[in-house]
Amino acid sequence: MTDSTDLAGRRVGLLASRGEAAQAAAAMLRRRYRWADERDAELLVALGGDGFMLHTLHQMLDGGEVRPVFGMNRGTVGFLMNDWRLDCLGERIAAAKAISVAPLSMRAVTIRGDEWTHAAINEVSLLRETRQAAKIEVVVNGRVALPELVADGVLVATPAGSTAYNFSARGPILPLNANMLALTPIAPFRPRRWSGAILPDDTCVRFRVHDPEDRMVSAVADQFEVRDVAEVEVSLDRSRSMTLLFDPEHALDERIATEQFAT
């Protein structure tokens, strides 16, 4: 067992998803290195996939104590993770490139008047709950940009999330330093030619659901869902930025840029 100074001379905590591969990797790392208690750590190593990384970031946001995270992929896609390797972890952490990621803030009001707030690292999406298409008014910085969007839904994505659901909905991939947000319709019916917009990241987007009791719509901030919404407001919250650590040759900003040329 090596001393914790081998982990970049810092108090590093270890987190792992419940998956078999992540648990096996955690066991090997615990035998190789000495770890700080998660509550006392100044930096975290997370083992799992993108879902577990999002879970880890949300746990920190909810707890109010945000710390840098170095992820290693023991899940499926691992776009937000580094490659898994047992050796030289301290050196990797010391040489890691820090990437700042700011979350979206969602405020959703239901048809009953209940109000919910939640953060989203990837995207906030509005989705129809029934067989009927959603009818949604889109307001940008207080101005009605679209009086009525008829679609399966609509989403706002950060650059970090632009390669996820946003890209599947044919939205644009945004470079990480673009200071932009993607506003993307999901299976739009009217206006037929509207494919979305790219907005400055200081923009406030408000969605008003038409006929919300008949054409019910849910709002989802990453994995957190609020059903039967009447109005949803989305904006970027720079005051809650988080830091992800990446191997320099595997950094998130460069991989997002490369995704624009994927075939």
Question: How many β-strand stretches?
Answer: 16
**Beginning-to-end CA distance, first to last residue:** 45 Å
Q: What is the CATH topology classification name of the largest domain?
A: Tumour Suppressor Smad4
> Strand-and-helix sequence, N→C?
EHEHEHEEEEEEHEEEEEEEH
The CATH superfamily title of the largest domain: Probable inorganic polyphosphate/atp-NAD kinase, domain 2
Derived structural class? alpha+beta
Strand content: 35-45%
CATH architecture of the largest domain: Sandwich
Helix share, percent: 10-25%
Question: Count the helices. How many?
Answer: 5
Radius of gyration: 20 Å
Contiguous runs where pLDDT drops below 50 for at least 5 residues: 1-5
Q: Calculate the mean pLDDT score and round it.
A: 93
CATH class category of the largest domain: Mainly Beta
Whole-number count of domains? 2
From the spread of the alpha carbons, the general shape counts as: elongated
Biggest sheet descriptor: 11 strands, antiparallel
Account of the protein in words:
This protein has 263 residues and is an alpha+beta fold. The chain folds into 2 domains: 4-102 and 241-259, Rossmann fold, CATH 3.40.50; 104-239, Tumour Suppressor Smad4, CATH 2.60.200.30. It has 5 helices and 16 strands. The strands form 2 sheets. Strands 5, 6, 7, 8, 9, 10, 11, 12, 13, 14 and 15 form an 11-stranded antiparallel sheet that branches. The longest helix is centred in the first third of the chain and has 14 residues, at 50-63. It starts with 11 loop residues before the first strand and ends with a helix.
